[in-house]
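Quick one, probably user error.
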């Protein structure tokens, strides 16, 4: 890859979390940035996720705060609750529109879009970006059964990067994950900072990917 290409990352947070959980490793978001900074000029790194606003404590909040302070452009919106035809309560938090608008608006300023998602709904977006002269790489995996990436999205992409092959470069050492003992009710305790060395200068602890509940 040319060192002069302008790159933007678009991370579908819920989809990436589900994929890495299935593969059994955690993303080190500092290493992820460095990996793509080494491939060209990194213009933006977007991270998209919906938040449940009425929860007293959201397990994804430490991750969101950390990303916001450490080189990522975090895009969030509140989830919406609805009742389906069977009378079951459901929570909806789709970020596809926000990601697509940002990508199309940024298209004149980048040469390469890296999409971290396997959602087939993004196939039309990938095609639209390609018509604008932007090369598109899709990051997901086909090593699981079933694959985590839709076939139509993989076919449309200019390049497919399998997360299982990137794990050694952007994954975190499993030994870094702290133990989370349960409380007297058998529930997992609210996460705490591991130690001062891993806190950012803004006082926010280094997040764990398993804080993120899709």
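Nope, works fine. Designed sequence:
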């Amino acid at each position: 890859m040319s060192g002069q290409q302008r790159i933007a990352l678009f991370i579908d947070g819920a989809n990436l979390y589900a994929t890495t959980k299935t593969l059994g490793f955690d993303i080190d978001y500092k290493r992820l940035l460095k990996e793509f900074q080494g491939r060209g000029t990194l213009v933006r790194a977007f991270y998209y996720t919906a938040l449940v606003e009425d929860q007293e404590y959201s397990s994804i909040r430490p991750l969101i705060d950390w990303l916001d302070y450490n080189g990522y452009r975090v895009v969030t919106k509140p989830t919406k609750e609805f009742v389906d035809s069977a009378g079951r309560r459901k929570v909806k938090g789709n970020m596809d529109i926000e990601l697509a608008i940002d990508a199309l608006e940024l298209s004149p300023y980048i040469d390469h879009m890296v999409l971290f998602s396997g959602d087939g709904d993004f196939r039309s977006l990938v095609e639209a970006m390609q018509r604008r002269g932007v090369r598109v790489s899709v990051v997901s995996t086909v090593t699981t059964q079933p694959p985590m990436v839709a076939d139509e999205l993989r076919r449309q992409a200019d390049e497919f990067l399998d997360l299982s092959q990137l794990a050694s470069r952007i994954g975190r050492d499993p030994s870094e994950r702290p133990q989370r003992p349960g409380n007297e009710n058998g529930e997992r305790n609210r996460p705490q900072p591991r130690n001062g060395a891993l806190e950012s200068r803004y006082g926010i602890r280094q997040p764990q990917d398993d804080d993120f509940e899709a």
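Residues 178-214 have pLDDT under 50 and may be disordered.
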